[in-house]
Amino acid sequence: MLVILWDPDCLLHETVELLGSKLIPALESPARLDAILKALHITEHGFRVVQPSAIDNEARISRVLKSTSDTHNYNYLQHLQTVYEEWLSAGLIEKDGNVLPECFYLPTSTGKPMRPPKDVFARAGYFAFDMSSGIMSNSYRAIVASANLAHEGTDMLTGFGTKGGTDVDTVFALCRPPGHHCDGRRAGGYCYINNAALAVSTWRASNPKARVGILDIDFHHGNGTQEIFYSDSQVLYVSIHGADEFPYYTGAEDEKGTGDGEGMNINLPLKVGSPFEEYMLKLEYGLDRVHEFTPEFLVVSLGFDTFHADPLGHFQIHTEDYETIATRTRQKLKDIPSLILLEGGYVIEHLGANVLSFLKGWKSV
Ligand code: OKS
Ligand code: ZN
Q1: Who surrounds ion ligand 2 at CB < 5 A?
Q2: From CA 65, how far away is CA 115, in angstroms rounded?
Q3: In whole numbers, what is the pLDDT of the chain averaged over residues?
Q4: Which domain holds residue 168?
């Protein structure tokens, strides 16, 4: 059975971003989630659409802090929680303003270690790598709600396939903000907590030695997820993404993992403008690698910015193609408890149809 998980608090985060030298309302907006929910509610699809168990915000925060403790820097998480209020008290922003970093950490030859600057204005740039990760009054609440979906989704899958266990084999968590660009101590590309990494930690809490597969099929390379698991021998990260696109400095084929994790990072960059057939060749190859690894838990970082008309993506993928992508993924990785996490996708008018197409394929297998 497939369950769709969402949280109304994920709608609260609404920021501005710098795009083409202009400050605009961020493309990663609440309207994305609204569009998906609308499509799910008006269509007869037979999925269970549910909200997470009601816990108060403080309990939810401590749960998220606990399940990110081995992958995320504590000072970074504290910064996410407090920086808006700090900027407000310092008179750096008005109530409706956004914390936006301006000067970023600069690697030098001095041999000096990275240290957060004392100044609260400067600190925003220490904990971010771009200007697409603004923080407004409600951001932290939404960030935690989004991460909590990854946590609860993983919990719902634990025990699948065991005697007397759950019959839920797939959870699709409608996370927003997304996660795959966050590396555990830097926000960027609309991401603040790496939801995929949080899911892996949650799974490992009850299965410490489990093999986990992460399939990242957002248009953009998941630099954060790659970074977090780069030396991990039990986590296979496979990503198909636009070659030489955002986040620009990662995603090349020769990034294969290091130490015990050597060979456990597979980047499959695809030239922008590539037709769907070429995309599918990469997907089949990636799915075979995940299948060979025999993971006990699968995380899919799913972005709909691979759509042909997306303002931030440039593949030739159409609505009906998502059904094919999901069908082949499910066929090759059947019976693995799967957590699907929403990443990008910015064409609001087609987002609902694209999600439904993907779910139709997933369910058909
Ligand atoms: C410019 C936009 C930067 C692109 C961010 C890409 C976000 C995304 N401000 N990642 O998967 O969809
Ligand atoms: Zn993306």
Answers
A1: 218-220, 303, 305, 344
A2: 22
A3: 96
A4: 2-68+143-364
Ligand nearest to the CA of 196: 1
Work out how many domains the chain is built from and give that number: 1
Q: Determine, yes or no, domain membership for 93.
A: no
Give CA–CA dist 348/357, Å, rounded: 15
For a pocket test of ligand 1, which of 98, 131, 218, 220 has the largest count of ligand atoms closer than 8 A to its C-beta? 220
Residue 99 included in any domain: no
Measuring CA to CA, how many Å separate 246 from each of 171, 180, 344, 354? 28, 12, 12, 22
Q: Which of 180, 181, 220, 221 is catalytic?
A: 181
218 lines ligand 1 (CB under 6 A): yes
Residue 187 is part of a domain; what is its CATH number?
3.40.800.20
Nearest atom of ligand 1 to the alpha carbon of 180? 11
**Residue 273 burial by CB count (10 A; 0-12/13-18/19+): exposed, middle or buried?**
exposed
In a domain, residue 83? The reply is no
| pLDDT tens digits for range 211-234 | 999 999 999 999 999 999 999 999
How high is the ipTM of this complex?
0.99
